[in-house]
Design goal:
35% of the residues lie in helices and 15% in strands. It has 600 residues and is of the alpha/beta class. The N and C termini lie far apart (74 Å).
Length: 600
């Protein structure tokens, strides 16, 4: 459907139109334009659409219109494959029904208190959004009754079948009267999907978003040829150059997520990870912090981010090129929503260029090659931002309290130029590292064997055996020891000081063979927590930065041993850290932080 349709031209109530307007929508998306009229008619519908096409409103708007208001029995149910998607759909339904009085939406899913969900159902709910497993539990407890439901939606039905929910779905369908309306949305039309529709849908209408309509035109898509070891440097340069505030970074493996989060935090970026190893309460906390902007950079695997929906995401960075063409569409659909612009950057190493071509063939969109910002480019952007902040601060006034600062510094022997340069350096937070003057662009003609499996992002997930594509994230990549090794001759960026059966290593050395820590500028602190509590460098950096407010990237060497950890901190921050970390907790354990004996 090429012609755009305005929402106010559809047969919708005033309440829905007011809610849609408040959400910033004027024109219906292709899937909405095609599906809403058929669902409004009460017909069974099969919708083939990807995440980010607006399918929730496509079935949600007609569902709300059909609800008999103020009746507290369940009239409609929406099944979703994951907790995250269920929460997302529920929030969208609440926004759409905001100005329609007497419509109540309840969300039910595993990992949350079932007693609280039962209480919510008893209070009255005419629309229920939930995962199949929890819905079955509530039906068996007789807390959820569907004998008066007239509509059911299966959202991302292919995902639910892949996750083994077929029997649960069929059991739920058997609980709903045969006169119901059934709406099914799926990204693919596989044989299991067709078997389900043939059995449970009556003369369904098929609506479909074709591939060239999937990719959002508001998203600027670029790829960068990079050296494998320079991925993090390129990532942070893109963040700084484009002044990105809220960013989703995708990796193919859980292990990679943890490594990227660790590196970002070390460089002073507020980052957290999202993957299958997190408990539901942890996932919820991470998502809340990201949505509120307390965490600016969320690093996630595809499976963990399923159903993730956050407004105002500036950019998506494919740190690892996706393992499947559909994953690319799902990833970049997280930005550029509701008519806003967004960016999608893909880092390509070695022979991954072939996978990039497959993605372009699939999406029918040419992804242009981007130019990696130089260190000077980033410094220039930061300087400009600093100058703007200074100008705005001067314009605001109220500077009298600080008038004596410059004379005092001049009296100490510093020139105005030196003072300004120092302030710029302090505020910019840019430090030239080993990549500063290096060409970070990779050479595409290199053999893929030279880069190794981990830099290529690992192999394709299998649906059985070693890794379940949907049930969890496969921990692929390099075999054996991880990045931070307890023993052996090869050290990582942080040295843990040996394992329980070996002597501690000495301090990390720089390229000149000197200790990494500078005794003149750094103070070594000791924390009474270590390997025995399963501590990682990211735990230390997160606690120090979070409690004391210092940038994570100013910390020096972190040396973790069995019962304690040494942390090098710049002298000017040592007292602040000692004060703020007093009585603080790391991984739920109250810790003590003191100056190491050698530095007393």
């Amino acid at each position: 459907m090429s012609e755009k349709i305005r929402f106010d031209s559809l047969p919708l109530s005033e309440g829905i139109l007011e809610a849609v307007k408040e959400m910033g929508f004027e024109f219906a998306s292709p899937i909405q334009s095609e599906a809403i009229p058929f669902v409004m008619e009460g017909r069974d519908v099969i919708g083939q659409a990807q995440t980010g096409t607006g399918k929730t409103a496509a079935f949600g708007i007609p569902m709300i219109e059909h609800i008999i208001p103020f009746e507290k029995y369940v009239q409609a149910i929406i099944l979703c494959p994951t907790r995250e998607l269920a929460v997302q759909v529920s929030e969208e339904m609440k926004k759409l029904s905001k100005y329609t009085k007497g419509v109540w939406v309840t969300t039910v899913y595993g990992g949350d208190s079932i007693d609280r969900q039962i209480k919510s159902l008893k209070a009255g709910a005419n629309i229920v959004v939930g995962t199949p497993g929890r819905v079955i539990d509530l039906i068996e407890r007789r807390a959820l009754k569907l004998n008066q439901a007239s509509m059911i939606v299966l959202d991302e039905a292919d995902e639910m079948l892949d996750m083994g929910f077929r029997e649960d779905i069929e059991s739920i369908l058997e609980e709903i009267p045969n006169e119901r309306q059934t709406v099914l949305f799926s990204a693919t039309m596989s044989k299991p999907i067709m078997a389900l529709t043939n059995r449970y849908l009556t003369n369904p209408k098929l609506v479909k978003v074709v591939k060239n309509e999937i990719t959002n035109v508001n998203i600027e898509q670029l790829y960068y040829d990079v050296k494998g070891r320079a991925k993090m440097e390129v990532t942070t340069r893109l963040i700084d150059f484009y002044s990105l505030k809220l960013v989703l970074i995708f990796c193919n493996q859980k292990k990679r997520v943890d490594e990227v989060v660790e590196e970002l935090m070390l460089r002073g970026y507020a980052a957290e990870g999202l993957h299958g190893d997190l408990r539901q309460s942890q996932r919820t906390q991470v998502m809340n912090r990201f949505r509120s902007g307390n965490v600016s950079f969320l690093v996630a695997t595809d499976v963990a981010a399923r159903g993730l929906d956050v407004d105002n995401v500036d950019a998506v960075i494919n740190y690892d090129i996706p393992l499947d063409e559909e994953y690319y569409v799902h990833r970049i659909g997280r930005t550029g929503r509701a008519g806003k612009s967004g960016k999608a950057f893909t880092l390509v190493v070695g022979s991954e260029r072939n996978r990039l071509r497959e993605i372009m063939n699939y999406t029918k969109v040419k992804i242009d090659k981007g130019v990696i910002p130089t260190f000077s480019d980033v410094v220039g952007v930061k300087k400009g931002m600093f100058i703007d902040r200074v100008a705005n601060t001067i314009a605001e006034g109220g500077l009298e309290l600080f008038d004596d600062a410059l004379p005092n510094l001049q009296h100490a022997g510093f020139t105005v130029e030196q003072v300004v340069a120092a302030l710029v350096k302090m505020n910019m937070g840019v430090v030239k590292n080993e990549f500063g003057d290096e060409n970070l662009e990779g050479e595409m003609e290199r053999s893929s064997r030279k880069y190794g499996r981990d830099e290529r992002g690992g192999g394709r997930f299998e649906r059985g055996g070693g890794g379940d594509r949907w049930g969890g994230d496969r921990d692929g990549g390099r075999r054996g020891a991880g990045r931070f090794e307890r023993g052996g001759d090869r050290g990582g960026r942080f040295e843990r000081g040996g394992d329980r059966n070996s002597a501690p290593r000495g301090p990390r050395m720089d390229r000149d063979g000197k200790p990494y820590r500078s005794d003149e500028n750094m103070v070594r602190l000791v924390v009474n927590i270590g390997f025995n509590e399963k501590i990682s460098p990211s735990n230390i950096v997160g606690a120090f930065a979070g409690e004391s407010g210092i940038p994570g990237n100013v910390l020096g060497q972190i040396q973790i041993e069995n019962k304690h950890t040494f942390v090098d901190v710049p002298k000017e921050y040592a007292n602040v850290v000692l004060d703020k970390m007093s009585g603080a907790q790391i991984k739920g354990k109250r810790v003590n932080v003191d100056i190491a004996k050698a530095d007393r």
